[in-house]
Amino acid sequence: MKKRRVLAILLASAMALSMGACGSDDKEEPPKTENEGGGNDTESQEVKATVIWRAFDDQFQSGFRIIMQNLEEEVGGISLDMQDAANDVSTAVSKLEAALTKGTEVVAICAPDRESTKTMMEKCDAEDVPAVFFNMEPMEETMEQYDNITYVGAQAKESGEMCAQALINYWNENTEIADKNGDGVLQLVILQGEIGQQDTMLRTQAYEDTLKAQGIEYEILAVDTANWDQAQALDKMNAWITAYGIDGIEGVLCNNDNMAMGAVQACLNNGYNNGDPEKFVPIVGIDSNIDALEAMKAGSLLGTVLNDRTNQSIAIMNVIKAVKEGKEITEEVVGVDCTVDGKYVWVPYVIVDDSNLDSILEQMSAISQE
């Protein structure tokens, strides 16, 4: 019964988010799978697919995997063999080689890093097995070189824009308390993910582009990497509080929620972000992990951006079926709100605010109980 309840929440949330992202008065339909509503026996034959995850123990990846596992039963016609790369390239490659040897028909890969995607794609192509990469985008030259490759993900730039916009909205709406030194300049710090990784670069650049586009006078006090990690982010934020004073930091933009929660903890340890609007450092993250959503509900985190794992999971599974059957990838085939651009399937981010916080928190809470 619990699994059915989780599936109902996931699909209802996916439908609601798709409606919000489309912003249209047209009649909306729930996310659908490619074989839903008919199809012949050949088309509905079960596809054997291997899914290689960067790391099972990562909070974002774990939630993503649970969603996909739950949807496997609901979707039907597909058998998923989940493999843990343990955030190690050699392990990921070894798992892929084993899957290819066993005769997997399609592989879906969230690689440990971008560089490894080339090697993994070479191995898939040598065995004429289609590859669907997700959450770690292959290099452009890799995408161009092969025909049997697809990427499903979200535009990193979009999440950076939304993240910065949340901070800008707070700054504009709370100027008297937000501008702690009264100089009219937003002094902020930035916590980055892995240096050189595409999401890190695009999200960080989008912060500045959005601040400039909105006409915000700002000063970046410091930028440093915390490698997507909460503990590292806590250490970096503590060092910045020591260097600039907690009132000297008027905003924190983080490339993901893990790092945002490290920054939140540093503020809490200094008696800030406990509900007093005069003692608040606005911090924004990306991913909508459950702890970030709960912190947002409690008022200790300003905001987060949903990396829509539910719709991405539906998209990945429908793309797996389509590439196995040799079908063209279209928005209709993908089955959720998205943009198909050649070999890329882009599922939009969703900014979390008062209108959808409760529903997204319910969705993530249901997943965490699995």
TrEMBL record:
Single annotated GO MF: metal ion binding
Signal peptide: 1-23
Intracellular or extracellular location(s): Cell envelope
Keyword Transmembrane on entry: no
Stretches assigned to the Periplasmic binding protein domain: 51-328
Gene Ontology CC annotations of this record: outer membrane-bounded periplasmic space
Ranges where the record places region Disordered: 20-45
PROSITE patterns the UniProt entry points to: PROKAR_LIPOPROTEIN
Keywords: Calcium, Metal-binding, Periplasm, Signal, Sugar transport, Transport
A Pfam family recorded for this sequence: Peripla_BP_4
Subunit organization: The ABC transporter complex is composed of one ATP-binding protein (MglA), two transmembrane proteins (MglC) and a solute-binding protein (MglB).
Name of protein: D-galactose/methyl-galactoside binding periplasmic protein MglB
Organism of origin: Candidatus Egerieimonas intestinavium
